[in-house]
Amino acid sequence: MVLLDSSNFILRLEKIANAAKKDSSFTITFKRYDGHDKPVPRAGRPPLPKPDTYMCLIRAQSKSQKISTVVREEDVPTMMSMYSQFMKSKMDGLKRVKKVKSKAKAAKG
Fold first, then answer.
1. Which DSSP category does 98 fall into?
2. 3-state secondary structure of 33
3. What percent of the chain has pLDDT above 90?
4. Structure-derived torsion over alpha carbons of residues 72, 2, 23, 14, reported in degrees to the nearest 10
5. Signal peptide span per the entry (predicted)?
6. CA–CA separation, 40 vs 47, rounded Å?
7. Exposed, middle or buried, 65 (CB in 10 Å: 0-12/13-18/19+)?
8. pLDDT digits (tens, 9 = 90+) for 3-14
9. How far apart are CA 68 and CA 31, in angstroms?
């Protein structure tokens, strides 16, 4: 998995979305991240220290490509604005769901 900065993450995410538009899909996950890369210690050992501020870990995956970024608390508004622009530009391929009337409603009206 490749750890990128926020702006490069959005650029790579656009490339993944364009590639996935043709024949596959991609997923994006958000997770609270405390900065610890080590697992929780066993019983009897001192616990890991609590962070002052939490960060956000964002991961994207499509087929065999995996990218991720860590967003600090002060960078969240700028990252979310870039992410919302990305979503608005790439959500044009959704198909409209046709509503099916039930027979009881069709007979009444």
1. P
2. strand
3. 47
4. 50
5. none
6. 7
7. middle
8. 999 999 999 999
9. 11
Residue corresponding to tokens 């890991």? 48
Q: What's the whole-number average pLDDT of the chain?
A: 87
Q: How far is CA 107 from CA 6, 14, 104, in A?
A: 55, 48, 5
The tokens for 22 are: 């043709």
- Please say whether the beta carbons of 17 and 26 come within 8 A: yes
Distance, CA of 57 to CA of 39 (rounded, Å): 16
- CATH match for 1-35+52-80 among 3.30.720.10, 3.10.180.10, 2.60.40.420, 3.30.300.180: 3.30.720.10
- Would the pLDDT of 47 be above 90? no
pLDDT at 58: 95
Rounded-to-integer distance, Cα 103 and Cα 61, Å: 42
Looking at residue 85, what is its pLDDT?
Answer: 93
